[in-house]
Amino acid sequence: MLLPQAKEVKLNGSGVSNNNSNNKMALGKSIKMYLTIFVATTCVYMVLYQYHMSRQPLATNEVIKPPLYIITPTYRRPEQLAELTRLGYTLKHVVNLLWLVIEDANRTNPLVAHTLDRIGVPYEYLVAPMPEQYKLTKRAKPRGVSNRNRGLDYLRANATEGVLYFADDDNTYDINIFEQMRYTKKVSMWPVGLVTKTGVSSPIIREGKLEGYYDGWIGGRKYPVDMAGFAVSVKFLHERPQAKMPFKPGYEEDGFLRSLAPLDNAEIELLADECREILTWHTQTKKNSPALPLNMTRYGHTNLAFIEKLLVRP
Ligand code: UGA
Ligand code: MN
Hints:
By secondary structure, the chain is of the alpha/beta class.
């Protein structure tokens, strides 16, 4: 049995190569087949996976929330970087937020920009100086008004949806209020602690309805509320192209809210558990006197020469 085969092998050399090429072709075919099956299976899996993922509800932190625009007036003084640092790290806990830091100045300050960069909250740093006529007055000044109006202009030019909030740089904010104000349809309000001798400024709610306002100073205002106690929807702001804050000390909030007319009391949304909670405070930082100049002959070659450059002097 072996011999004839061996003979055949010997005699028919071309038979060998035929066999070999047949084997190679068969091998090639099966590799192709396996590859095709592999690619097809992978494709099917990918399609199924995509379909499965598309049907998965997004995790809470993936849901795209309406944007928040936080307008913060600020001005040059020894406490400035400390205030911005404290507020900035509060805002860092809030997603989809743009921090509009607007300084009452003619030009930006690199120290402020550096502080904002270090904090890492998305921001725009703009300037809006207080008009000279108000700067010179001996009476109360309209603090932060040109800054806030600049913020409104920015939103009119750059925002279409979401909510705006005026957050002074020295106040205290519980991050829960940001998640609540995010869904404001027109205007929302809530209590602010540490305002006037009443200790709190708040809408008064009786049987779920806004009845009036509690504040140590009413002053003939229609809306006796603090700057930290309300938020406005950007869409609503677009519907009120004339709305702005007046340069009228004590009447900034009232003037701005009045300029949003028509606005029905029933349309004002009451946050912070229908105004039963305090989530914002009108804290005030002690004023520090300007830093003394550094004695360079004595300390010029020490670290003090570096940190001296980080001090905000009026
Ligand atoms: C109170 C209210 O809470 C403010 O909302 C209101 O703007 C202010 O009074 C006012 O009507 O004058 P108060 O703590 O007395 O706030 O004022 P500041 O905190 O000194 O200033 C309010 C905001 O304006 C701050 O963010 C501050 O940085 C800024 N500001 C102050 C300026 O931009 N320029 C200034 O010359 C002073
Ligand atoms: Mn303040």
